[in-house]
Amino acid sequence: MATSRHHAAAAVPDARSGNWVDRFAPGWLKPYARLARWDRPIGFWLLFWPCGYSLALAAGSRGFSWIALTEMFVGAIAMRGAGCTLNDIVDAELDAKVTRTRARPIPSGQVSKTQAAIFLALQVVVGAAIVLTFNLLTIGLAIASLVLIAIYPFMKRITWWPQLFLGLAFSWGALLGWTSQTGTISLPALVLYLGCIFWVIGYDTIYALQDVEDDALAGIKSTARLFGDQVKSWIATFYIAAVACWLIAAAFTGDVSIFVLMLIVPAGLLGWQVVTLETGNPKSALRMFKANNWVGLTLTAALLLQAMVR
Q1: pTM
Q2: pLDDT of 5
Q3: What CATH number did the domain enclosing 187 receive?
């Protein structure tokens, strides 16, 4: 899995300058770290937060499992990396046509598709090892999620709503966290899952705003292109629906007096994104997208504090 010194040093445009991969990873590892997006940790955080939400939501009568939280965090890193690797294998030709993605390891020649496939398998093994520590229902749901992971890379070719399919996959942790603690699927988890889907559609539409011109030339579909001049209104609608679902999910589990007060913070962060977003500015879109990490942190904290009070 060796690579040339030149290719190993070639950072991708949308990674933060001076990130730990660029600074500290050995040359042979850099292309694989970039393939898994370890240089852009926002992705695994956004995959992880629905797990945090559901673990906190289930904590009211059972206590909060820090062990499960840690396992799901590691699992999110592994499976987000696997999903990105699969996506890059499938999209290599399309990525070569888009300015922001043409420097990725596969289209730039740093990693072959065969090498990427081996790396993909290794990440799936790590994810599977973690999942196998949970109950049978959670294991079954984790296996089912592989279908969503597998079909997502193809959605941008056949539908204007690839963000919906990303939402279905990226929100799956809202079910896994709940079932890992309760052994059942029930209404609070389903409503939480729906809210996370709305959230993902909103923030990934913002993310897609970075590429609307190149996507149009390459024939890549997205909600950012679909919504056009109304994109901010649509994002606001999805964010409002997300907050409403999160509130309803919490209400199903009991008292929400503290949660309602603390919900002001993540809801305010979502509103700030919509108001300050510059739709024609890729840097603004990336900044607003990354701000969703704080939404995840504050919402998890709100749910956990409410559970502790109960």
Answers
A1: 0.88
A2: 39
A3: 1.10.357.140
